[in-house]
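Re: adenine structure - here you go.
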Amino acid sequence: MNNLIKTLPKVELHLHIEGSFEPELMFKIGKRNNIELPYKTVEELREAYNFSNLQDFLDIYYTGCNVLIHEQDFYDLTYAYFTKAKENNVMHTEIFFDPQSHTDRGIAFGTAVNGIRNAMKDAEKNFGITSQLILSFLRHLSEDAAIEILEMAKDYKDEFIAIGLDSSEVGNPPQKFEKVYKMAAEQGYKKVAHAGEEGPADYIWDSLSLLNIDRLDHGNRAMEDEKLLAELKERKMGLTLCPLSNLKLKVVTDMRDHPIKKMLNLGLKVTVNSDDPAYFGGYMNDNFAAITEALSLSKEDLFKLTSNAIEVCWASEIQKNNILSELNKWKMMG
Ligand code: ADE
Ligand code: ZN
């Protein structure tokens, strides 16, 4: 791989911790917890990663979650992600966590949060990677269920920077979650939401106006609406794009059609992210490599993608300056 991409300092803002669950670790934890997966081998599981759309993927993703029982399991999952993040020169990361994928199976909220948080702390100590956690609601479930999760999170308030919204987009529009977003805002959370991945541009408008989001996850379909593109630019809205995810879930059929370069040229605050790297064939380096090749990105483009991420992330000012200084050093290199 291109050395420029490997050495580029990175900030990851769209990563589902459950989507970083590599099959080898999934089988290992399943075995230790005496939970059988509906696949006999790692290879058989990997062969199933052939998705036609978002729902195809989500069905397998939720199945994988079933082996996570103990705090140690959540710790191991999270620490494994950070090991990959380190290899990919990620300096700061903001991680989605779907509590309902676990509490609905009878796992205590605190079991999952404590495991994840302890791994985040150890990763900062051992790798120098800073991180934040985002409490994400499953949009195929009811708003009342999301409110229950927000209530559970009260005892762990300091552990989360923001709330988010993920899972099956079409048919589960932003207005379904207007009330819980208002409640979370009153409690001081920042707000993000997946929108315009499979859902229409209207879902992006509604995420802006009804959910009052601070950052937009995906947002690909904004390309269909010029007024919306102008609005996103005017608001300096961060967009967390996920190139390999988009290819795997058929949001784009060819990487050469990915909108990230056009959005960058329009002056939007776009960023590169891996979404669910264990399922979509790559972590940050692979995502950068795929778009750099397909869209002929320049060194200046790569610089802008990380500087956008620094701007729209929620790291401390000290850490933002630290990453920016690494980025400037990178710019001066060969
Ligand atoms: N959950 C995990 N990955 C997701 C994605 N790309 N879109 C919606 N929900 C998700
Ligand atoms: Zn996502």
